[in-house]
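Can anyone check this?
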Amino acid sequence: MSLPFRSASRLLPGLALCLGIALLARLLHEAGCAALGVAWLDALVIAILLGVGLRAAWEPAEAWRPGIRFSAGPLLETAVVLLGASLSPGALAAAGLGLPLAIAAVVALALAAGYALCRALGLSWRMATLIACGNAICGNSAIAAVAPVIGADSREVASAIAFTAILGVAVVLALPLLVPLLGLGVTEYGMLAGLTVYAVPQVLAATAPFGSPSMQAGTLVKLLRVLMLGPLVLALSLAMARRRREGGAPPAPGFRLGRYVPWFITGFLLLAALNALGLVPRAALGPIQVAAGLLTAMAMAALGLGVELRALLRVAPRVGAAVAASLLALLGLSLFALRLIGAA
């Protein structure tokens, strides 16, 4: 047996396990949507929870571990690249300049406030970064994209996604109560939902009771908010490169982009640029997004399999408090921004 084939065959058990968990998570997600009518719990969250639950009952033997590690590493990085095709810079041009600037300001302030609150509650800088990024931009997807950039481990990623998801659902349920309390119009409420709710399906669930204008406003603001993910991961990549240099890592001669920006972030930005220029065939966008979702779910399953439930529960109070505090800060900043631009 040749060496490449033997190396690939070592990955198969773990890859098959992660694929099975990812497919089961997708089935459970679809079943939940069919039963409840809306997507309350994302397939990525279900994949992590299934992985954590399986790991609590069974510790994978050595034969499973290479494929699990591969799923949590290169497969996750490949999924980040494919996420670039889901960005729609055309929405930026359609919205004018004022709204995107307001959204960028809210995201930047929410990142700073979320990070500061998490650190004040005693969380590590990696965990604080994951929660702040997930809270400020797009929840699970932002956490998954940022995790390999900052070198977050499986427990940190699983904790950030699990508690962000739980409180994200709570926001969807509680946010409509603000309409009568604050006297918001349906469009203004849609913009508030787009600024505070994590995922596009959740924005639709939160705005659907108030009709099409609310749903359209929320979706537009949410898409503009997601566009901030590209600049964020690029800035974090450059910050991590500087951190490594300050830590004594020897500089390489000459300039190489890969020295400052990981390959998957370069791929993410390149694919987003090609999509913005119309160079990605429309027929390919659907399959690319499906592949990105499947690979990300496999990575989340692998991360869940690497987490000990007791370790997750030990950090639960602090992480839950940090996510809740970050969400409240985001809500306050969003309301202030809407008042400032005269939208509420």
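Reply from J.R.: I decoded it. Residues 11-340 form one domain.
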